[in-house]
Amino acid sequence: MEKAERPLIEFRNVKKTYKVGDTLVHALNGIDLKLMPGEICCIVGTSGSGKSTLLNVSAGLERVSSGEIIVSGRHIEKLSESNLILFRQKYVGFIFQSFNLMPYYTAVENVAFPLAFRGINKQKREKKAKELLCEVGLETHLNHKPTQLSGGQQQRVGIARALVTNPNIIFADEPTGNLDSVTSREVMELICGIVRKQGKTLIMVTHDKQMAEYGDKVITLIDGKIV
Ligand SMILES: Nc1ncnc2c1ncn2[C@@H]1O[C@H](COP(=O)(O)OP(=O)(O)O)[C@@H](O)[C@H]1O
Ligand SMILES: [Mg+2]
After folding, report:
1. What residue ranges line ligand 1, CB within 6 angstroms?
2. Number of structural domains, the chain?
């Protein structure tokens, strides 16, 4: 069991450097950070400041160049590729700016998809997917395909898909970046409401300062550093 006072995610002097031709890009330049379980953390900063990189290394999608990232007591920078995949399957849900839904699949099939790798039968997968879709207010659109849904509805499907595996941590990279301001507020309230209700931890990148108001903690990045 996680002790409440122990950080869920801890960064210790994390650096991520990309080599582009002959130049080095310091996407993360010494990040120290502690996030507590149940916290909503918003990451803000201009384009190119390292927000997505911070999210991707936390979620185990990319490797750090140096430093330590400890999630639920595990040093993820030390995990092998196969253990990293298991870590992601067990702990991580991801919400994307561009929704990333599969175009030929219905809402139910999109949400059920992450469960396919977990040895859960189709009937159970679809039952769970329907529950989640009801939770995000899409009970009348279960069998719609992405092109038959508005942007806000597609992102609701994306939210349901991120939650279907019951992960501890939800990562969202500009989840309202493709939505108008009214829909953005609705989607943000939905994400934060579910996260709070289920006691999950949310780390969200947003370049919209207004959206950052939803966070318990706001982290501002400039040139790969927290300011
Ligand atoms: N795969 C990559 N290869 C080379 N450079 C990258 C790569 N990913 C990101 N970068 C660079 O790292 C910096 C931070 O990028 P990113 O984390 O995507 O910023 P943000 O999400 O804040 O816009 C930028 O200068 C970007 O060009
Ligand atoms: Mg980005």
Report:
1. 18, 20, 25, 27, 45, 47-53
2. 1
